[in-house]
Amino acid sequence: SCPPLSAIPNGNINGGKQRTHGSHAIFSCNAGYQQIGSSLALCNDGTWSEKLPKCLAICRPIPSIKNGKVIGKGRLHIEGDKISFTCNPNYMLEGEEAIRCTSTGQWNASEPVCKLQVQTPSTTISTTSTTAQATTQVQIPSTTISTTSATTKTTTQVQIPSTTISTTSAEIATQAQPKNCPDIPKIRKAVVNGSGVIPGSKRTFSCYNHWELSGSSETTCLNNGQWSKPLPTCKLT
């Protein structure tokens, strides 16, 4: 006789109780389960001709997802099966890329969704700067003063009969800012009175006895950083 048949999880066995030579057993699965294996086994010389089948849970079909594709569709999905998903161009997958059918007949995760990618258009800001130029003319009898201002350079022209003076903005800036004068060097046999080297400072000069001053006895520091008079000298009388 053949050995007794054990129960099939989520399945049924009809027959097979006699287990004598030539007897048979019929196998089937419960609803919601897929049978993997033979449906019939014969007892032959103390051995069953087939092994017991397996009954695996069936998961619900997922034929498609919106704006995407299901890879592995088109067949029955049973316990252990996997399916994967991809999205159409310009769509992004949100959720699991692949899910698996479990022994409970449920997928281990919900199917994902494909969401449209929001693309912010790039913005280019172009700025064009314009340099304005103004010309002002002031007329005085027999004299015309023309001033032209620009962003990087200013030119001033003063016209006097048969004379033109052209001054750049750099020179004007230099003239507009007072400069200190250099220190007065020591003058042989001379006495220097006064102090300071800023514009407006004054120095006076005198000579020792028997020495005579040659040159100006006074000089003033000008805004251009120069003394108004050359330095004098002392000569022996």
From TrEMBL:
Q: Which UniProt keywords apply?
A: Disulfide bond, Repeat, Signal, Sushi
Disulphide bridges, residue numbers: 87-114, 207-234
Residues folding into a coiled coil are none
Do you know which Gene3D superfamilies this protein is assigned to? Complement Module, domain 1 (2.10.70.10)
Q: What is this protein called?
A: Uncharacterized protein
- The scientific name of the source species is Paramuricea clavata (Red gorgonian)
